[in-house]
Write a structure and sequence with these properties.
CATH superfamily of the domain at 227-482: 2-enoyl-CoA Hydratase, Chain A, domain 1
Distance between the termini: 41 Å
Helix content: 10-25%
CATH topology of the domain at 227-482: 2-enoyl-CoA Hydratase, Chain A, domain 1
Largest sheet: 8 strands, antiparallel
Oligomer: single chain
Structural class: alpha+beta
Radius of gyration: 23 Å
Strand content: 15-25%
Length: 483
């Protein structure tokens, strides 16, 4: 699974539309509906020359994601399906990193008419069923009228958004905001304002509307927590803050300080007793620009392994390790699972995932210990409401390990992979359709994961110096425990 987090540069150094409010019945989840148990080995959808595997050619409909894929000999066309089926109007290219990703791998089930598709090896299992032909209307030009755009927008939300119960009002209340506002001939500005009214106060950083209106690039996104909005309004903004944090950390770690992974990882030791490891993003550790390709994934994995091998080897014999995810913006879920693999000697279930209306059982994500250097001592995990997405998945995983203590502030509370749903006119809607849960079934969407030891990491009056004071506090806590 991937998240739209790499855009953060971490400074190196017809008549009125009637909006029907209905209830979409959820597909039943049965305990035996675990297709991943019967699926065959992972295979690439296309070879290096772009030719697709004959076994996967044809028309496929997803379970719970609203996609239809028409896979030919040299590629695939993706359609959006709900009450209507359409291929969005062209916009000159993808509008987000999630919008740019396409399935690269598949695992075929024994019947040959069901398959699991994945963006990258080990990512979310999306089940597709083979169908005889494209559904009616898919190949017709998309209806880009305001009525059609608004209808698709509401349909996607009603079918796929998983958290209206945690972010009220529900679908019906929000849809009511649109009633009477959609009409033929309304301008893009008016339509954008109407759709934005539906999203007002949603408080979900993984749900957004992106588009070009009157030549201007626009974005509707809420749920940024308290710390980042405050920082962005301060002098110098986020860039100055991040630069100052990295400079401070390097100074305090002294000669042990290392800035690695394309500026996304800082590590070293404190007083020759405590290891310190901070990750700002779950990925982007190389300069490769072929995002989400197999080559990109291999390179990212290899670079992370190199860094962790060196860091964990240097932490051998120390009293404890501070893993600082208090400024982690998320990214690639494989990174979120590779981190705890360095701190366990036994496999364990980190969390489960379940897609809205997929009809499948929750999928358990297991962490396997790596063969390289690992740390078996106490771990102190620092979090804040900047910690989001992949950073929260790592937090959820670490919370299953008995030697880990979470310190700091609650995480953001936005876990789901953003589901990209282009609208007929080319605007892009992304929304949260997947529920991530702890092995015991607890769901932390919206409220975040609360620490065991509360600690203000980025105080309003000193968001730079306060961070290292918090690190020192945790280091002293670890020393007292060791002594």
């Amino acid at each position: 699974m991937l998240h739209d987090r790499y855009r953060t540069h971490l400074i190196r150094v017809a008549g009125a539309l009637v909006l029907a409010v209905t209830t979409v019945a959820a597909a039943p989840v049965t305990g035996g509906d675990r297709p991943w148990l019967d699926a065959g080995p992972m295979r690439p959808i296309a070879s290096q020359d772009g030719t697709t595997d004959p076994a996967v050619r044809g028309v496929w409909r997803s379970r719970g994601y609203g996609w239809v894929l028409d896979i030919g000999e040299t590629g695939a066309i993706r359609y959006q399906e709900g009450n209507a089926c359409y291929r969005p109007a062209g916009t000159g290219g993808p509008q987000s990193e999630m919008d740019s990703t396409r399935y690269r791998w598949f695992r075929m089930l024994p019947d040959g008419d069901t398959a699991i598709f994945q963006l990258l090896e080990g990512d979310t299992n999306v089940v597709f069923d083979r169908i005889e032909a494209l559904p009616a209307g898919c190949a017709s030009p998309a209806d880009t009228s305001p009525q059609a755009v608004a209808a698709a927008f509401l349909d996607h939300f009603e079918r796929h958004y998983a958290f209206f119960d945690r972010r009220p009002p529900g679908f019906a209340g929000r849809a009511a905001r649109l009633e009477g506002t959609i009409r033929p001939g309304m301008t893009d500005v008016q339509l954008w304002k109407a759709l934005a009214s539906f999203m007002d106060g949603l408080s979900d950083s993984h749900t957004k509307l992106i588009g070009t209106v009157g030549g201007e690039r626009r974005r509707i996104q809420d749920g940024q927590g308290k710390i980042l909005p405050r920082i962005r309004e301060s002098e110098g903004g986020e860039s100055a803050w991040l630069s100052a944090l990295i400079a401070q950390t390097k100074e305090r770690l002294g000669p042990t300080s290392k800035v690695d992974g394309n500026g996304r990882i800082v590590w070293g030791t404190i007083d020759d007793r405590i290891g310190y490891l901070q990750l700002f993003v779950m990925g982007g550790f190389t300069d490769r620009e072929d995002f989400a390709s197999s080559g990109w994934a291999r390179a990212e994995h290899a670079e992370l392994d190199r860094i962790l091998d060196e860091a964990l080897a240097s932490f051998a014999g120390l009293d404890a390790v501070i893993l600082d995810l208090s400024n982690n913006r998320g990214g690639w879920d494989r990174v979120a699972k590779l981190l705890p693999a360095r701190f366990t000697s036994e496999p364990f279930i980190a969390f489960t995932t379940h897609a809205q209306n997929s009809g499948q059982a929750p999928f358990p994500h297991e962490i396997e210990p790596v063969e390289g250097p690992r740390f078996a001592g106490p771990v102190y995990l620092m979090t804040s409401d900047v910690t989001v997405s992949g950073g929260e998945l790592a937090t959820l995983a670490f919370r299953q390990l008995p030697q880990v203590v979470q310190v700091g502030m609650p995480t953001r509370g936005a876990f789901s992979t953003p589901l990209p749903k282009p609208l007929p006119n080319g605007w892009l809607l992304e929304l949260s359709n997947e529920t991530f849960a702890a092995p015991d079934g607890a769901v932390y969407e919206e409220r975040g994961i609360s620490p065991v030891v509360p600690l203000d990491i980025y105080p309003p009056d000193d968001p730079v110096g306060g961070h290292w004071k918090a690190v020192e506090y945790v280091a002293e806590m670890a020393k007292r425990r060791a002594d």
